[in-house]
Amino acid sequence: MHKCLFAGGKAMENRFEERIAEITGRGLFSDDIEVIQLNLGLRCNQCCVHCHVDASPERSEEMPWSVMERACEIINEVQPVIVDMTGGAPELNPHFQRLVARLRGAGHPVQLRTNLTVLLEPEMVRLPEFLREHAVQLVASLPCYLEENVRSQRGSGAYEKSVEALRRLNALGYGTAKGPALNLVYNPGGAFLPPDQAQLEPDYRRELQARFGIEFTHLLTITNMPLGRFWEELRRRREDRRYMALLRDAFNPNTLQGLMCRHQISIGWDGRVYDCDFNLALGLPVDHGAPSHITQFAGDAVAKRRIVTGNHCFGCTAGFGSSCRGALV
Ligand code: SF4
Ligand code: SF4
Asked: How far is the CA of 56 from the centre of ligand 1 (A)?
C-alpha cells in the first residue's frame, strides 16, 4: 500500500500512486526539464482564500541572493525553455530585478507570475516598464471577469486594482498583437472544476474588451488544488471529502503526458528542489534518490527522476487537467 503525506501532514493511502501504477506499471517519471520554476518567497501583498502556499503580508520567507546565484548556474547548465518566477508575490523579493537582469542578460526567457495588484504598490511604480524593457512574459491572476467573484477570492479592491494594472500593461504593449505575452489565469470560485479553457477564453476576451478595453494573449484555466487555505476552508465547510471524490472521479489518463512535474522542477526560496510548486507547498522535496537541494544538483538524475506524488495530484489530472500552463487536454 502506497502512503503519502497529505494536507495537515496526516499519513493516508496514496491512491494517486496506485492509479498511476495501474496505468503505467510503475510510478510517475519525469521526461525532461523544460521549465525551471523559482519560488522567490512567500510574502505577498494579498491573502487570497484559495492560496495553496499560504502566502500573505505576514510571511517573511524569501530567496536570498546566494540561492539565486546557484539557481542561475543550474539554469545556465540546463538551458530550460523558460524560467518561471512565482511566490508569494515574486516582485516583493528585494533581489527580483537583479535576478531578472542576470537571467535575461544570459539570454534566458523569463516569465513572471503576478497577482497584478502588487504592481500598484508605491514602490513598484517603475516595475512594469522594467519588465517590458527586459521582455519578461507575464502570467496574471484574474480569477473571473466579474467583480464579485474576484472580490470573494482576493478581497475588497482587488478587482479595481487588477483592471488598473492590466490597463497599464496594455499601454506598454503587453497582451496586444505585437507586444509580449500577457496571459490571464482563471481558477474556480469554489469546489468545482474549471470549464473548458477554449470556451471560456472568448468570454473573457469579449467581457474585458467591452467593459474596459483590455486585451490579453491567452486564458489559462487552473484547478483549485486541495492544499493550503483552500483546503482548510473546504474542511471547515465539510466539503473536503466531496471535493476529493470529485477530483478522483474526474481522473483523465490523457492528462498524464503533459503533467507539469514531468517537464519542470521547482526551486524553493531556501534552495530545496521540488517536482512542482504544489509539492513545495506540502513540504515534499524530490526523492527516490534525486538530490533534493540545489547544492547537490545533478542534471541527469533530476531530469529522469521518479516523481513524489500524493492524493493532491488528482487536482492535476481531473477533467481537462491543470498545470501552471493551464489545461492539459
Ligand atoms: S494566491 Fe497568489 S496573490 Fe493570492 S495570496 Fe497566494 S500568492 Fe498571493
Ligand atoms: S501535484 Fe501535479 S504537478 Fe505536482 S507532482 Fe502531483 S501531478 Fe505532478
From this structure: 7
Whether 132 is covered by a domain: the verdict is yes
Residue nearest to atom 7 of ligand 1 (CA): 88
Q: Which residue has its alpha carbon closest to ligand 2 atom 8?
A: 261
Q: Kindly give the distance from the C-alpha atom of residue 51 to the centroid of ligand 1, in angstroms, as a whole number.
A: 5
At 7 the pLDDT is 46
Q: Mean pLDDT by 10-residue block, N- to C-terminus, for the chain (329 residues)?
A: 48 89 94 97 93 95 98 97 98 98 98 98 96 98 88 89 97 96 95 97 96 97 95 95 98 97 98 98 95 92 94 98 96
Ligand 1 site, residue 87, Cβ cutoff 6 A:
yes
Question: Is residue 162 a part of any domain in this protein?
Answer: yes
For residue 326, is it within any domain? no
What is the helix (H) or strand (E) element at residue 221, kind and residue range? strand 219-221
CB 208 within 8 A of CB 214: yes
Does any domain span residue 283? yes
The CATH number given to whatever domain includes residue 235 is: 3.20.20.70
Contact yes or no for 126/132 (Cβ under 8 A): no
The domain in which residue 161 lies consists of 26-317
Quote the cell numbers at residue 52. Answer: 495553496
Q: How many domains does the chain have?
A: 1
pTM: 0.95
d(CA 56, CA 50): 12
Cα–Cα distance between 147 and 257 in angstroms, integer? 36
